[in-house]
Design the sequence.
């Protein structure tokens, strides 16, 4: 049950290096810029050294209780182990967005919205594999507009160190590409 | 409009230390709080403050002892195994009546344990840890905002009572990001000239810092003086937060991260028609015994939820003194109870005690 964007409990999971943590952080930052309540809880430790990584990102109109939760409104999964682990934990009616080039066995659940997009291939077309996470974020925001695109772009400016600001345009293109891919799939936004 | 920053708990705590005027930080890296040393090593020199990576936690705490003795606002931080190493030094600092801030970003033990969050250091924090009769004021933050706010409070209380203050956090509160506002802070004026070893002018006698009183008669006088101070602390510094207690039939008691998880559990339970409230101790020493005693005549049962095998529950029972059942639920090893799991346990207990 969605309650008009009052609360979004999201998990982002994948391999270390796929930009899982920065995806969640950018979203949290954008939420903060819109005066929402936010929390970002990363997995830390061995994951940071190259295994699997995940972060729980919560965006809410009200004060956030637990930063650690076990059931999610939405999940973004970027590898097979994360699909296997988190697909069962999406609330009925929720969204599961995944990278379809990496994940060969998506969940067979029918009570959630499953959307796969080949973000890695798209990133290769854009000649920068590192923007894969931004393509995914663009797709997610098209499905769940929890924050505005303007806030995401402003957040990127704050999250990215100044020496990487020349990469802002390609990040913006990646976000737009992700949005467009969802539009092409003709999936309705869930509000 | 307040200006918010998005920071990890560890970073917010480090930034607050700078804003609180911390003169010197001594520490040794350990997960999950290495960001503190990293942050301060980068930022403190810009403010002409001291940061030193000591050769061990034993060295860190003794450097804090020295800096505090010389009248400086000083701190260290570590995580559970490192804090264990500091216990001797903490006892000396308490015995010598010196103000300082110690931060423990609790991970699960015993031993090296795991780097995931835990609350297994409760007993060590509030019941002693080091040797001899002493107490630390123990503050338990439950958000990134409180990680910052309690640094100011901790330093001020340390100065006020000339006593070490412990900020007891955990790996999750340290690693998570939330928005934080650094509120304007005015440092209370504290005269340290009567005791700090700053070099002897001709106008006064020598200041002398020690925890050694070899004659039993003098030692006991010192003990009694310390006890009087701890009594003052118990009378004046109890802090806690209550949520939904007005109409509560049952009560969660939890601190730090557990209290956050219990808030979610409370929302779920209330949707099911179980009127439960939450008492969150903010100071673990001094402990809100009085308030628990009062609530014991209102609620039918209390449930202490902790990330350990059941430590704070003993203090809840001391407060309640047998008036209502006090139960415990916890996870260990860096595992987190889910809100649903806590509610399930609560429902089982309500049935078991026939208190619905």
Sequence:
């Amino acid at each position: 049950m969605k309650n008009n964007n009052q609360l979004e409990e999201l998990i982002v999971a994948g391999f270390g290096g796929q930009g899982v943590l920065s995806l969640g952080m950018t979203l949290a930052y954008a939420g903060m810029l819109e005066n929402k309540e936010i929390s970002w809880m990363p997995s830390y430790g061995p994951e940071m050294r190259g295994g699997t990584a995940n972060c729980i990102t919560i965006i809410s109109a009200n004060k956030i209780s637990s930063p650690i939760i076990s059931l999610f409104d939405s999940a973004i999964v970027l590898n097979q182990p994360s699909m296997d682990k988190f697909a069962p934990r999406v609330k009925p009616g929720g969204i599961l967005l995944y990278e379809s080039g990496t994940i060969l066995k998506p969940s067979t659940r029918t009570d959630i919205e499953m959307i796969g997009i080949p973000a890695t291939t798209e990133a290769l077309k854009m000649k920068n594999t590192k923007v894969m996470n931004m393509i995914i974020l663009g797709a997610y925001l098209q499905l769940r507009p929890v924050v505005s695109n303007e806030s995401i772009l402003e957040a990127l400016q704050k999250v990215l160190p100044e020496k990487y600001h020349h990469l802002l345009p390609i990040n913006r293109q990646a976000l737009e590409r992700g949005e467009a891919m969802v539009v092409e799939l003709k999936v309705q936004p869930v509000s | 409009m307040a200006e918010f920053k998005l920071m990890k708990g560890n970073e917010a705590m480090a930034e607050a230390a700078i804003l609180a005027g911390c003169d010197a930080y001594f520490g040794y890296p350990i997960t999950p709080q290495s960001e503190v040393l990293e942050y301060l090593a980068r930022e403190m020199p810009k403010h002409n403050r001291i940061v030193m990576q000591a050769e061990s936690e034993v060295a860190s705490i003794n450097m804090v002892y020295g800096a505090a003795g010389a009248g400086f606002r000083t701190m260290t931080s570590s995580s559970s195994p490192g804090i264990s190493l500091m216990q001797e030094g903490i006892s000396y600092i308490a015995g010598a009546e010196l103000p300082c801030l110690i931060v423990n970003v609790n991970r699960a033990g015993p031993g090296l344990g795991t780097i995931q969050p835990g609350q297994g250091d409760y007993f060590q924090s509030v019941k002693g840890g080091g040797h001899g009769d002493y107490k630390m004021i123990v503050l338990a933050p439950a958000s990134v905002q409180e990680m910052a706010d309690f640094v100011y409070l901790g330093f001020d209380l340390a100065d006020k009572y000339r006593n070490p203050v412990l900020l007891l956090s955990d790996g999750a509160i340290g690693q998570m990001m939330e928005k934080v506002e650094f509120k304007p802070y005015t440092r209370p004026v504290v005269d340290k000239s009567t005791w700090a070893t700053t070099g002897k002018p001709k106008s006064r006698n020598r200041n002398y810092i020690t925890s050694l009183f070899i004659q039993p008669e003098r030692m006991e006088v010192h003990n009694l003086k310390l006890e009087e101070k701890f009594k003052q602390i118990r009378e004046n510094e109890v802090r806690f937060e209550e949520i939904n207690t007005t109409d509560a039939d049952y009560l969660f008691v939890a601190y730090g991260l557990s209290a956050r998880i219990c808030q979610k559990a409370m929302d779920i339970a209330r949707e099911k028609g179980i009127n439960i409230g939450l008492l969150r101790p903010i100071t673990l020493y001094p402990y809100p015994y009085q308030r628990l005693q009062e609530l014991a005549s209102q609620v039918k049962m209390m449930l202490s939820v902790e990330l350990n095998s059941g430590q704070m529950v003993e203090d809840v029972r001391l407060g309640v003194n047998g008036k209502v059942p006090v139960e415990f639920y916890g996870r260990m090893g860096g595992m987190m109870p889910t809100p649903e799991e806590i509610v399930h346990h609560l429902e089982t207990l309500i049935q078991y005690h026939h208190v619905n």
About this structure: Chain B has 13 helices and 14 strands. Residues 216-236 of chain B form the longest helix (21 residues).
